[in-house]
């Protein structure tokens, strides 16, 4: 029987992607809280600043290994600071969160494919 494991670089990349997904979940929660505030016709307060505060370190973390995803995060950070209607901001932020989540999942699949090492195990066949 043969098993599959990741090499050292693949393991490090998967760790980075898993941490990024966890951080993205918290960003998604903030975006949805912002959407609720907009729907109830209340001010969004400091939520855009909190999104920026969480997204900026994530962008730096991804920059070295996953530059394209980091660029998408940069676009999201810029979108939070733009003027305009809050409903439009929420829509844009939701789209960015979806795109970044998809990119992270695709990258994880590529890392598994590219960095897989076949290991032989003793089988009784």
Nutshell version of this structure?
This protein is mainly alpha-helical and 125 residues long.
Fold topology:
Elements: E1 2-6, H1 8-39, H2 47-63, H3 67-81, H4 86-114, E2 116-120
Antiparallel strand pairs: 1-2
Helix pairs in contact: 1-2, 1-4, 2-3, 3-4
Describe the structure.
The chain is mostly helical and 125 residues long. It has a single domain, classed as Four Helix Bundle (Hemerythrin (Met), subunit A) (Up-down Bundle), CATH 1.20.120. Helices cover 74% and strands 8% of the residues. The protein is built from 4 helices and 2 strands, in the order βααααβ. It has helices at 8-39, 47-63, 67-81, 86-114, and strands at 2-6, 116-120. Strands 1-2 form a two-stranded antiparallel ribbon. Helix 1 runs antiparallel to helix 2. The termini are close together. 23% of the residues are buried.
Q: What do we call the CATH topology? A: Four Helix Bundle (Hemerythrin (Met), subunit A)
Q: What is the strand content?
A: 5-15%
Q: Which stretches are low in confidence, meaning pLDDT under 50 for 5 or more residues running?
A: none
- Share of helical residues: over 70%
DSSP, total strands: 2
pLDDT averaged residue by residue: 88
Give the C-alpha Rg: 19 Å
H/E element string?
EHHHHE
Instruction: Count the domains.
Output: 1
Strand count, sense and barrel status of the largest sheet are: 2 strands, antiparallel
Shape: elongated
Secondary structure tally, helices? 4
Question: Which CATH architecture is right?
Answer: Up-down Bundle
SSE-based structural type: mainly alpha
For the largest beta sheet, what order do the strands appear in spatially? 1-2
Cα-to-Cα separation, first versus last residue: 8 Å
- State the CATH class: Mainly Alpha
């Amino acid at each position: 029987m043969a098993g599959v494991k990741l090499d050292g670089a693949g393991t490090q990349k998967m760790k980075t992607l898993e941490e990024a997904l966890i951080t993205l979940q918290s960003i998604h929660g903030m975006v949805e809280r912002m959407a609720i505030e907009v729907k109830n016709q209340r001010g969004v307060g400091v939520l855009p600043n909190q999104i920026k505060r969480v997204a900026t370190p994530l962008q730096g973390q991804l920059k070295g290994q996953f530059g394209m995803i980091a660029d998408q995060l940069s676009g999201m950070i810029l979108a939070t600071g733009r003027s305009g209607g809050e409903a439009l901001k929420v829509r844009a932020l939701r789209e960015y969160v979806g795109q970044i989540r998809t990119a992270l999942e695709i990258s994880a699949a590529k890392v598994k494919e590219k960095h897989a090492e076949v290991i032989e195990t003793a089988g009784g066949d």
